[in-house]
Amino acid sequence: MDIVIRPAAPGEHAELGEITAQAYLGDGLLDFGESDTYLGELRDVGKRAAAAEVLVAVADGTLLGGVTFVPGPGPMADIAEPGEAEMRMLAVSPAHRGRGAGEALVRACADRARALGCTRMVLSTQRTMHSAHRVYERLGFTRAPGRDWNPLPELDDIMLLVYELTL
């Protein structure tokens, strides 16, 4: 199966939003389940595409998953500093995992960051995303614990881990 990574077409936004939402829900990554406010952000691919680059992985006409590539500080960046690109909301449909789509999306983001002259690629991940951590580490990302952060400071138990890749 040949996986093609390309920009998401507007007609794919709803499908990718649902793949992303269902991946996060199915993996138990939303603390408040179906009522989690972040679910709306995950589904709103159009909003992301208006402020960043949304890439998709496609094979044999099937949308496998996608990622949001943020080329630097701005409205879609959580942690990117000047000279850094950020990757967000990586998701692959559970039915299509284990085929290399996630890794291909991460590689595409790193390649895009290099092409833009960025010196580093950063991302935030949850503690429980162990399979994603393995992909990041295999691709050369290292933990940056000094940059770990809590998106909801009013809740003590939500801490995102930061990984970075020197380009």
Structure summary:
This protein has 167 residues and is an alpha+beta fold. It is 31% helix and 27% strand. It is built from 5 helices and 7 strands; from the N terminus they run βαααβββαβαββ.
Features:
globular, alpha+beta, 167 residues
What does this structure look like?
The chain is globular, with a radius of gyration of 15 Å. It is α+β, with helices and mostly antiparallel strands. A seven-stranded mixed β-sheet has the order 1-2-3-4-5-7-6. It contains five helices and seven strands. It has helices at residues 13-26, 38-43, 45-51, 101-115, 130-138; strands at 4-7, 53-59, 62-70, 84-92, 120-126, 142-143, 160-166.
How many strand elements?
A: 7
**Poorly predicted runs of 5 or more residues:** none
The shape is globular
**Largest pleated sheet:** 7 strands, mixed
Q: Work out the radius of gyration.
A: 15 Å
Along the chain, the helix and strand elements come as EHHHEEEHEHEE
User: Termini distance?
Assistant: 29 Å
Strand content: 25-35%
Strand order of the largest sheet: 1-2-3-4-5-7-6
